[in-house]
Amino acid sequence: MRAPVSTDGHRSEIDGLRAVAVLLVAVYHVWFGRVSGGVDVFLLLTGFLITGSLVRAADRDRIRYGAFLARLAARLVPTAALVIAVTLVGARLLLPETRWRDTVAEAWAAALYHLNLYLAGNAVDYLARDDAPGPFQHFWSLSIQGQFYLLWPVVIGLACWWAGRRGVAPRRVLVAVLGAVFTVSLAYSVYVTRVDQAWAYFDTGARLWEFALGGLLALVLPSLHPPRILRLVLGWAGLIALVLCGVLLQVSTVFPGYAALWPTLAAVAVVVAGTTGSRWGADRLLTPRPVRYLGSISYALYLWHWPVLVFYLEITGRTLASPLGGAAVLAVSVVSAAATTPLADRLARLGRVSPVRGPALALACLMPLMLVTGVWSARLDAEQRRLEERLADPQRYPGAAALDGPRVDYPDPVYPDPASADLDVPVTYDEGCNQTIAGTEVITCVYGDEEAERTVALVGGSHAAHWFPALRGIAQDHDWRLVNIVKGACLFTDAPQLYRGEPYDACAEWNRGVMAELADLRPDAVFTTGTTTSLDTSAGFGEEVLVEGYVDRWRELADLGIEVVAVRDTPRLGFDAPECLAERSPEECTAPLSGSMAAESPLDGAELPDNVVTLDLTDRICAPDLCRPVVGNVLVFWDSGHIGATYMRTLAPHLERRLLTATDW
Question: By CB count within 10 A, which of 31, 230, 454, 460 is most buried?
Answer without folding.
Answer: 460
